[in-house]
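Progress note, sequence design subtask.
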């Protein structure tokens, strides 16, 4: 399965080890592979340099124990500029649903009643070759209205009326991930360029004909220089396929602590292509732990579920995001409501729905223009919260939030939380981390665990908190035990045995449970902290 280079553009080459994917030839065309090859040749070296810069910055944080707004870019923060006006299809974003690009999810998300579907090739998708290529096929089929799906139980799914379908915003993989099944000159192509390139190349003109466009969510951004790289990719890509500059629109996830200090600079770099910023909650906490993991007790986070969006440092982050976006004419999109309704427990649903409503009421009241949900049943709840504030207006960007003044110290005030880590929090991190990693290794990136839709950020914060608690010698608030590697291994062993008993020997053996257990412990307990769990996990992905 390979394509030879020809003409002015180098071709990406499909590795001989790539498993066959039905209809892959419709996506991996000679011209598409040539486009990917040129993207790689032009931009992969800069990407490598920026990944090296991440390590240098992390070393600086470890040395200083702090972060601050950049003095060299003060003129951007003080300047008078705005991002491009939003296209009509992205002006009203009051509810956005997220999920992977499998066939059933594609149909359900587009039909969900949400204004936007985040079609996810990143944290909600395990990057098997089938998922990478098949997701592109599903999106093309959806735009051509030739997509349907029948479940094993015989239930049929089909698209509804075109005018009611959600606008698609694709999230490619982060800059740190490679795609081993595509190479140029023997080097793997960055997964971000694969996901972006294939979608844009095949759909830019198709989407424009529908009155929409190629829209993207940019994940894991750590600096405005990474946003600048994306902007240069966009400029080249638009020229290459013959669409106008500014056709592409990008929303950047502010899900790293370093990016929180560069929100204005990120928007400025992308200003002709920018459509907003999003508050990515779980990855944001993961980033805090990762960057300040050895900075002392004041950066030790309590249990994941104890860190709510009302925590002072999380309020500082979200309020600064709204203030920044509206100051520059961009949309501010709120965080995820990850609850998955139970078909058997109405009481569980009622309690969770109240929490979702309170969360979305707070976001709408704070000035956000929309927010995320993980399940279609949550769309009406989130929409009601934003309808109550917006009415017939598409957004509330006129709310400038000039009352907001956030300092560096407020963004870093993790020690403002009174909650402390608990043994039950450790147990939950082991349970959820193991269950998520096992599903990911089987090719599932969005997994319902304990009535929550979890993605890769879940596993990242689970193993990172374990690493931090052990290395900080935390004493758990609920039972007085000290966090040690031995205790973590004992808890993980008990949880694995419980899963084996729950699943039965045959189902347990058919899964990837032992590998998941081993990988969680390795990334949570190794002295050398690995930047992303998905890097060693990708080596185990079939």
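Output:
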């Amino acid at each position: 399965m390979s394509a030879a280079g020809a003409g002015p553009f180098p071709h990406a080459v499909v590795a001989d080890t790539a498993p066959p994917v039905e209809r892959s030839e419709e996506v991996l065309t000679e011209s598409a592979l040539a486009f990917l090859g040129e993207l790689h040749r032009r931009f992969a070296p800069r990407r490598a340099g920026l990944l090296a810069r991440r390590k240098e910055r992390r070393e600086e944080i470890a040395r200083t124990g702090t972060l601050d707004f950049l003095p060299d870019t003060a003129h951007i923060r003080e300047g008078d500029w705005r991002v491009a006006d939003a296209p009509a299809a992205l002006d009203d974003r009051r509810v956005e649903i997220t999920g992977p690009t499998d066939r059933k999810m594609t149909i359900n998300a587009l039909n969900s009643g949400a204004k936007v579907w985040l079609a996810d090739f990143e944290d909600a998708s395990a990057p098997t070759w089938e998922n990478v290529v098949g997701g592109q096929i599903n999106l093309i089929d959806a735009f051509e209205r030739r997509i349907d799906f029948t479940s094993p139980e015989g239930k049929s799914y089909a698209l509804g009326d075109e005018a009611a379908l959600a606008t698609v915003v694709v999230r490619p993989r982060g800059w740190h991930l490679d795609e081993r099944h595509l190479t140029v000159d023997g080097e793997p192509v960055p997964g971000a360029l694969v996901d972006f390139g294939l979608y844009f190349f095949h759909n830019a003109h198709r989407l424009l004909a529908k009155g929409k466009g190629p829209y993207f969510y940019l994940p894991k951004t750590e600096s405005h220089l990474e946003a600048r790289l994306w902007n240069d990719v966009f400029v080249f890509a638009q020229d290459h396929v013959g669409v106008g500059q500014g056709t592409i629109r990008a929303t950047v996830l502010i899900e790293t602590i370093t990016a929180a200090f560069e929100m204005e600079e990120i928007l400025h770099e992308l200003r002709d292509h920018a459509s907003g910023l999003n508050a990515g909650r779980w990855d944001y906490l993961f980033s805090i732990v990762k960057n300040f993991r050895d900075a002392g007790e004041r950066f030790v986070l309590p249990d994941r579920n104890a860190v709510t969006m009302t925590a002072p440092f999380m309020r500082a982050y979200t309020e600064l995001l709204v203030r920044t976006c509206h100051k520059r004419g961009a949309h501010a999109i709120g965080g995820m409501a990850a609850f998955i309704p139970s078909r058997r427990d109405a009481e569980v649903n009622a309690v969770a729905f109240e929490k979702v409503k309170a969360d979305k009421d707070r976001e709408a009241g704070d000035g956000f223009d929309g927010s995320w949900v993980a399940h279609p049943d949550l769309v009406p709840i989130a929409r009601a919260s934003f309808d109550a504030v917006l009415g017939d207006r598409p957004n509330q960007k006129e709310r400038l939030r000039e009352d907001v003044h956030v300092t560096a110290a407020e963004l870093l005030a993790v020690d403002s939380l009174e909650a402390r880590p608990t043994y039950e929090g450790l147990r939950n991190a082991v349970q959820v981390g193991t269950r998520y990693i096992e599903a990911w290794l089987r090719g599932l990136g969005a997994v319902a665990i304990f009535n929550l839709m979890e993605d890769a950020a879940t596993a990242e914060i689970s193993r990172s908190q374990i690493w931090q608690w052990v290395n900080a010698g935390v004493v758990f608030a609920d039972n007085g035990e000290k966090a040690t590697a031995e205790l973590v291994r004992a808890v993980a062993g008990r949880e694995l045995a419980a899963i084996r008993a729950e699943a039965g020997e045959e189902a347990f053996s058919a899964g990837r449970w032992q590998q998941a257990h081993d990988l969680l412990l390795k990334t949570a307990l190794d002295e050398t902290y690995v930047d992303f769990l998905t890097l060693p996990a990708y080596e185990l992905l079939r």
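The first strand starts at residue 13 and ends at 14. Work on this subtask will continue into the next period as scheduled.
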